[in-house]
Amino acid sequence: MARILITGSSDGLGLLVAQRLAHDGHKVVLHARNEQRAKDAKNACPDAESVVTGDLSSLSETKKMAEDVNALGAFDAIIHNAGLYRGAFRKTAEGIPALAAVNTVAPYVLACLINKPKRLVFLSSEMHHSGDGSLKDVLWQQRGERKWSDNSAYCDSKLHNVMFAKAFARRWPDVKVNSLDPGWVATKMGGAGAPGDPQKAVESYVMLALGEGDGASKTGRYFRPGRREDRPKTVANDEAAQERLMQICAQLSGVEPA
Fold this sequence. Notes:
By secondary structure, the protein is of the alpha/beta class. The chain contains seven helices and eight strands; from the N terminus they run βαβαβαβαβαβαββα. It has helices at 12-23, 35-44, 59-71, 98-113, 150-171, 198-210, 239-253, and strands spanning 3-6, 27-32, 50-53, 77-80, 119-123, 176-180, 222-224, 228-230. It has an eight-stranded mixed β-sheet, with helices on both faces. The longest helix has 22 residues, at 150-171. The radius of gyration is 17 Å and the shape is globular.
């Protein structure tokens, strides 16, 4: 049986995957933004081993969460599932939008600071194809709130997650690191009218978390629902661009690439 941490697992696909894995006998550690959401998550997935808390829009809480996770011991897999989609700029203490903090900076920081698992998954989206591959003003420090576009920021962040998977896969040959587009499914984030099949998404999560199937033996790849491998936006394969992204996050967070 595997031990798996899933960030952003108090609701949505993260919770569905946690429930599936726990039902199948795996040890699952949930993550929630605060104590109330942690209680809700544990009630929804009572077979989970435990819940860690941390607001991933806060750099200090993200770093503390990494410490808390390491105190729990080794993990077979970590799924960086937490993410924001729509909303206002919501400036963080570092002066960047909350969406960029949660979707881009937090998975980078957690990947660097948490002890390496056997398998690592970064959540992306088909919308990453609309992301800005030039990496200009990645964290909206120049454009600021006046020019804020949550749609553009989301697309960019999902491209960043594909690039993180490829960058960490190069750095860590002993870890299987991949990215996953779960599809557009009916969750709080996706909306009630989303046409995708959530069970097809769960299949891909589970495959990558457990290291099962032909696709799970690969690393640095991009997967879609139904365990299907696909090709990401071409710039995601640019190693120099991957390194620029890592250094931008390192400069903002004070956490050097592992």
